[in-house]
Design a protein that fits this description.
heterodimer, A: alpha/beta, 3 domains, B: alpha+beta, five-stranded antiparallel beta sheet, rod-shaped
């Protein structure tokens, strides 16, 4: 039994051993299998890893993508008003590529922030530094932005607020400047310039004739199709029929907004200068100006042009007349001159009458003259020379004081502009001067800055604007060649007939 | 700028202390009960008034008129604080133009003859001579920066500025024959003031606005005839074989003597910034640039001149 028991035990032990062996071999198997699996998986990972590595170079190439994170860096917090003053170029260029510096548009989100803001008017906040009222309203009007490119007789500019100042005086219609035909060029160009303006551009047209100035509108108006039609209609009748030259009755509607502290008296501010004054009071960014002459007095032969100081001129005339009455020799000279002058005047008026009759017969427009003596020059009749004062000091006044110097005019312009623009500085000023075909400069007078073109050129140079000549149509020639003696005879025969 | 800040600070302090020393105010509540007290502080967010005697009292306890008084008191308090309501003046040049030219002078007589629309002229070029003519124009002005650092808006701010500048003028405007006399170079200086008043409807917390003074147009004009004299020998002199040269024009004297110049300059700006106080009066803060401006000029025109005439 015991043996049996022991044998049984042995059996059990053997079985246990077997079991252990079986169990340990199974464990080994499983370990082996796992090792194999791990190795296999590891090699796959390694393979995958190596495969990935080859693609890794491409990832490295994408490095710039990492730099984009810089955008997420904290932005310096600024009150939105300051931000608005420096809008991002991106937004601006998306809306208009014309002149990004002209349009400062706040970013999209800023409109929401703006909404609860009080509405500011005038120029006291920094965010209306450039008067952005237009951009804001333009945004809501859903139209193209207001920057228009303008080419006014070769003077070019881009702006949102444009003023055009045009001469309508008779000086635009002189024969040597091409008469009415040249003025039709002005009409055509205005049609084109105004017609091409964007509807969000604010514009105005200022017409002047001597001391009279007419504004299309008292303020700037958007260049809507209706406004364009109205302004062209408004200008349409000007200088088309030369029987009525200059501004039409009731058109002049401008009075200066304030008294300017300038070297020129307000009543002496005439012509383009008064037109410019009306324009600068509207605060446009760019002003185009078309003129025939510089001043309200332009000498016929030399083309010297200046603004007359009326009160000094009147005083000087009195003193000069008194001098010629007192001085015996001077009086004689002057009387002789006056007698010749009166005769010449009669001849000139007759010549003009005959010339105009001939033009009417030929279905032409009448001749527009500076003064009656122009026709004498046309017919090569010399006028007597004005006797000079022998001793100017005896007169007690100098003729130089009767006209404003170019410096005084420049100062006047400067004060007028700065009074209206202040911190905005100077607007762009462009000048166009109408000349006849083949216009020749008087070099001696121009060298002394006395002619219109020399003065305009100096002014434009000073204000960094542009100056162009507008060469008009060919000069209108007189139909009649007249002889002074023949005309005098005609006058005398007419007088005897009347008697 | 530092001096200016100091000055404005001093003015602010003075105004502030004036406010603190106010007499007792009689407050009434919505039921008509009254009490005499002095406001120490107003909490704009919580709408609670801190009174000297009574302590913390909610704003809506007071009558409508007193509520308005408290709000105006608070606004004034914030306005008078130089730390919480900042003003700065910066001088700037808004435009600068220059015109220079060498020109040949000329004499031109002019007469208005009867029967003519335009005057008749007789021109004589003085061709042997030249003059250098220069004109410098500068537009100067001041930037007035207001910044509200209070927690509450400040309303109806009146900003008045007086820009002081001086400008020289020639006694004789443009006169060739008078240039023989000393008067030709004489100038007279004129003091000028340009006033501007603007109202800022509201300045919200942390808002900054920039206003501008009027512009001072400064003129610097110069005629120089010394460097450009072209010395000419008269025929008679060359006949006599004399090397003498002359720069004298008959009737006009020595040409090179006829130079002249006039200038101008900006003196400074005096700015008054004011709001309505609780009693309905205007309370002003004054600042100047430069800080010494008040030594030279006064805000109100001095009415001495008519007395002298009498």
């Amino acid at each position: 039994m015991h043996k049996n028991e022991t044998s049984d035990r042995d059996d059990m032990e053997v079985q246990k051993k077997k079991k252990r062996i079986v169990a340990s071999s199974a464990a080994l198997m499983s370990i082996a299998i796992h090792v194999v699996l791990i190795l296999a998986a590891g090699s796959m990972v390694a393979l995958k890893y190596y495969k990935k590595k080859s693609a890794g170079f491409q990832i490295e190439e994408q490095k710039p993508k990492l730099e984009r994170r810089k955008l997420q860096m904290p932005v310096k917090a600024q009150p939105f008003i300051e931000q608005m003053s420096k809008p991002k170029m991106q937004t601006t260029s998306r809306i208009t590529a014309n002149a990004p510096q002209m349009v400062n548009i706040p970013e999209q989100g800023e409109y929401l922030k703006m909404a609860p803001m009080p509405t500011f008017k005038g120029g006291y906040t920094n965010f209306v530094q450039m008067d952005r009222s237009l951009e804001f309203s333009a945004k809501y009007r859903d139209v193209s932005f207001g920057v228009s490119a303008v080419d006014f007789f070769g003077t070019k500019g881009k702006a949102e607020k444009i003023a055009i100042v045009v001469d309508t005086s008779k000086a635009m219609l002189y024969d040597e400047r091409g008469g009415a035909e040249s003025y039709s060029m002005v009409h055509e160009d205005l049609h084109e310039v105004i017609g091409n303006m964007r509807s969000a551009t604010l514009f105005n047209v200022v017409l002047y004739d001597g001391s009279q100035v007419a504004l299309f509108n008292q303020g700037m108006v958007p260049a809507t199709p209706a406004a364009k039609t109205n302004v062209l209609e408004w200008i349409g009748g000007i200088n088309t029929n030369l029987a009525k030259v200059g501004l039409l009755d009731g058109m002049a509607n401008y009075a200066p907004k304030k008294a300017y502290d300038v070297p020129m008296e307000q009543r002496d501010v005439t012509g383009w200068l008064k037109g410019l004054q009306a324009a600068v009071e509207l605060n446009p960014e760019i002003i185009f100006l078309l003129s025939s002459d510089w001043g309200n007095v332009t000498t016929m032969e030399e083309g010297i042009s200046y603004f007359l100081n009326t009160s000094v001129f009147e005083e000087y005339q009195q003193k000069r007349a008194a001098y010629f009455l007192e001085e015996e020799d001077a009086k004689e000279d002057m009387d002789l001159y006056r007698a010749e002058f009166d005769q010449m005047r009669a001849i000139a008026l007759k010549m003009l009458e005959l010339e105009n009759q001939a033009r009417i017969d030929a279905e032409m427009q009448p001749k527009v003259v500076r003064d009656w003596d122009e026709i004498l020059l046309n017919n090569e009749v010399e006028l007597p020379e004005l006797p000079l004062v022998a001793d100017q000091e005896e007169v007690g006044a100098s003729p130089a004081q009767t006209r404003y110097t170019i410096d005084e005019v420049l100062e006047t312009i400067f004060v007028m502009v700065m009074d209206n623009y202040r911190q905005k500085g100077f607007p762009q000023l462009n000048f166009v001067m109408l000349t006849g075909e083949g216009f020749s400069r008087n070099s001696t007078a121009a060298a002394s800055m006395m002619t219109s073109d020399a003065k305009f050129q100096n002014l434009t140079k000073m204000v960094k604007g542009r100056f162009r000549y507008l060469e008009g149509m060919p000069a209108v020639d007189n139909l009649l060649m007249q002889d002074a003696d023949d005309v005098l005879q005609l006058i005398e025969s007419e007088e005897t007939e009347e008697l | 700028m530092n001096k200016f800040l100091l000055l404005s600070f001093a003015i602010g302090l003075m105004a502030g202390s004036a406010l603190a020393e106010d007499e007792l105010h009689t407050f009434s509540n919505s039921e008509g009960k009254t009490l005499q007290d002095r406001i120490l502080k107003y909490d704009f967010k919580e709408h609670i008034v801190l009174l000297e005697e009574k302590g913390r009292v909610p704003l809506d306890t007071f009558s409508e008129a007193d509520q308005e008084y408290i709000l105006l008191w608070n606004q004034l308090n914030g306005f008078l604080s130089t730390m919480r309501f900042k003003t700065t003046l910066n001088k700037s040049r808004w435009a600068s133009l220059k015109h220079e030219q060498n020109i040949t002078p000329y004499f031109m007589d002019v007469v208005q003859l009867p029967g003519k629309q335009t005057p008749t002229h007789n021109l004589v070029m003085i061709e042997d001579y030249e003059e250098y003519n220069a004109l410098y124009l500068e537009g100067e002005g001041f930037e007035i920066v207001l910044r509200n650092q209070n927690q509450f808006p400040i309303e109806n701010i009146v900003v008045e500025s007086k820009l002081f500048y001086e400008q020289e003028y020639y006694v004789i405007p443009d006169n060739l024959f008078n240039s023989e006399n000393n008067e030709y170079t004489d100038t007279v200086t004129t003091n000028k003031v340009r006033f501007l008043s603007e109202t800022v409807p509201v300045l919200i917390p942390l808002e900054e606005v920039v206003l501008y003074s009027e512009c001072a147009p400064i003129v610097d004009h110069q005629i120089d005839r010394t460097s450009l004299v072209s010395e000419t020998e008269s025929e008679s002199e060359s006949d006599d074989e004399e090397e003498e040269t002359t720069t004298e024009i008959e009737g006009f004297g020595e040409w090179s003597d006829h130079g002249r110049r006039r200038k101008g300059r900006t003196t400074g700006v005096w700015v008054r910034i004011g709001i309505k106080g609780p009693e309905g009066e205007m309370v002003w803060r004054e600042t100047t640039n430069p800080s010494t401006l008040s030594d030279k000029v006064s805000w109100d025109p001095i009415p001495e001149e008519p007395e002298e005439e009498e």
